[in-house]
Amino acid sequence: MAAAGGEPSAPSASDDLFQNFYTEVKQIEKRDSVLTSKQQIDRLLRPGSSYFNLNPFEVLQIDPEATDTELKKRFRALSILVHPDKNQDDPDRAQKAFEAVDKAYKLLLEPEQKKRAVDVISAGREYTEHMMKEKKKQLKKDGKPVFVEEDDPEMFRQAVYKQTMKLFAELEIKRKEREAKDMHERKRAREEEIETAEKAKRDREWQKNFEETRDGRVDSWRTFQSKGKKKEKKNRSFLKPPKVKMEQRE
């Protein structure tokens, strides 16, 4: 960055810290890149791997700024290393490790997914730097030495790593919650659709039965009415007025 008057400004403490962090990460990548097949499988399937492996760059042990050519080269090397055919003494675990590598590679081939992963990593670093500034501000306010443990490059790297993993985990939890909610909504909509279809079917069957039995009901009513009239006529024929007795006078 250039200062006023066009003079280049001296690197800030934050820039130096990040450069040290970047150098440390490259050293770790170089060290881990020579792990044996078994070590790579153990790394990819270690406890908590379901969350560690959410970071595709962590899975492939490659820098976020790596080119597509470097990404492809790294994928081929690592996939061969953990492939089940190369690890026939432990094919099941090798298959799971291979799937983790393949998933990470395919994710990084999609520009949007790659950008999302890079953004998460950047957010983890920025949050860590922000917390360092806040801690130092409080120390200065308290009149204490302005030094935090993250000033040490290794501690800074660990802090960024932890924060990045936390962000990836939070995003994954939210994704699963959305997925569960969507699934519930789809299930509810399907149940309502089935209930509506069944009700419509019942209504159609009732209407059909009603139409088919209409003539029978009309005939039954007419027969009932006819019998009623005949019975009434028959009863009337037997009704005779009472005889009136004449009184006799003495």
From TrEMBL:
> Entry's InterPro entries?
DnaJ_domain (IPR001623), DNAJC8 (IPR042858), J_dom_sf (IPR036869)
Gene3D superfamilies, from UniProt? DnaJ domain
The highest taxon in the source lineage is Eukaryota
A Pfam family that this protein carries is: DnaJ
Q: Basic and acidic residues composition bias: which ranges?
A: 176-220
Report the main location listed first in the record.
nucleus
**UniProt KW keywords:** Acetylation, Chaperone, Nucleus, Phosphoprotein
Alphabetized SUPFAM superfamilies for the sequence: Chaperone J-domain
Function of the protein: Suppresses polyglutamine (polyQ) aggregation of ATXN3 in neuronal cells.
Name of the protein: DnaJ homolog subfamily C member 8
Can you name the source organism?
Answer: Merluccius polli
